[in-house]
Structures are given as structure tokens and as C-alpha cells.
């Protein structure tokens, strides 16, 4: 299967996990559901601007849509090693997006199970198929530089 198919599959699983977290948050209170959805969207855009914006492989992005979005946000590509601040910001936003929902998902065991399954499948897909095919040598997860 082409690497891009795996990229799309990982996006679908992560988007599915976020959708479940929004649904469960909404059941707690509409403000929580909307607030979390906004946080997830803003986090994604910041990560794309900060991380994908410097990615040398963004024109052949394994995640298909993130590269083009990065091009829209940052037209000029300036490739350089990621700074500690950029790596920390990316990690914190990812953690906020995917750890925060556990605070309310535990009240919905079935939703929590599907959420965890989507995250695990997405992580396996990215680790086994998407990252190995990526040429972003500056990424700490990339094997392109080794
Ligand atoms: S390959 Fe990775 S870092 Fe590069 S644009 Fe795509 S998702 Fe972002």
C-alpha cells in the first residue's frame, strides 16, 4: 500500500479519537465539548505552523493534508533544526490534545476503549509506516538522517 494511504489512515484514527473526546465532552457540558474541539483545532494549527512549517518533506507529506496546510501558513520554507522551544511546544500541545480528554472519558468506558484503540492504531501506523517513509531529517522521529 502506498505510504500516503497509511498517512490518511493515521489522520482518520486521530480525528476519530478527537471526535469521540468532543462527543463525550459535550455530554458532560456543551462548553466542554466546544472548548475541547477549539483546543484540538488550535493545537493542530500551531503544530502545523511550528513543526510542519520547517519540514523539508512537506511537499511530499505522508499525512497528505498537513504539508499543504503548512505551505498556506508559512509560504517560505526555511529548513533548520528544531529548537528546544519548538519541540517542547509541539509535545505539550500533543499531550494536551490527547491526555486532557481522559479527565472526562473515564466516565464513558466504551468511548474510552474506542478512543484508546484509535490512538494505539494511529501510533502504530505512524511509527511503522508513515515515519519510516518520511524525509524530514530534522524530525527527532525520522530515520532519514541516520
Ligand atoms: S511530513 Fe510530517 S512534519 Fe512534514 S509536513 Fe508532513 S506531517 Fe508535517
Structural summary, described in words:
- The radius of gyration is 16 Å and the shape is globular.
- Helix content is 66%, strand content 0%.
- The model has no long low-confidence stretch (mean pLDDT 92).
- It is built from six helices and no strands.
- It has 146 residues and is mainly alpha-helical.
- It has one domain (3-133).
- The protein binds iron/sulfur cluster.
- Iron/sulfur cluster (SF4) is lined by residues 51-52, 55, 57-58, 61-63, 66-67, 70, 134, 136, 139.
Please render the helix and strand layout as text.
Layout: H1 3-28, H2 30-50, H3 66-73, H4 84-99, H5 102-105, H6 109-130
The chain binds iron/sulfur cluster.
Task: Note poorly predicted spans.
Answer: none
Question: What is the CA–CA distance across the termini?
Answer: 24 Å
What is the quaternary state of this protein?
Answer: single chain
Share of β-strand residues: under 5%
Shape: globular
Integer count of domains: 1
What number is the mean pLDDT? 92
What is the CA-based Rg, rounded?
16 Å
Number of helices: 6
Q: Please give the share of residues in helix.
A: 55-70%
> Helices and strands, in N-to-C order?
HHHHHH
Biggest sheet character: none
Report the count of strand segments.
0
* Structural class by SSE content: mainly alpha
What ligand species are in this complex?
A: iron/sulfur cluster
